[in-house]
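Final report, closing paragraph on structural work. Over the funding period we assembled a curated collection of sequence-structure pairs, and we close with a single example.
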Amino acid sequence: MRAYAMRGQHQQALKAFEDCRRVLQALHAISPSPQTQSLRQKICDAAAENLSVA
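Its predicted structure, as stored:
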């Protein structure tokens, strides 16, 4: 996620989060860690900021 986000590929980063979330839920019945969820929020914020500037 971080690597995608650093390259400005926010949608790919968010897709990686969703893929991770689905696998964790399906295999272990757990959610991503708070740190991972925080990173997702930062990526969402950055993506929204980029959209509002364009």
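The chain has three helices and no strands. The CA atoms of residues 2 and 28 lie 23 Å apart. We thank the funder for supporting this effort.
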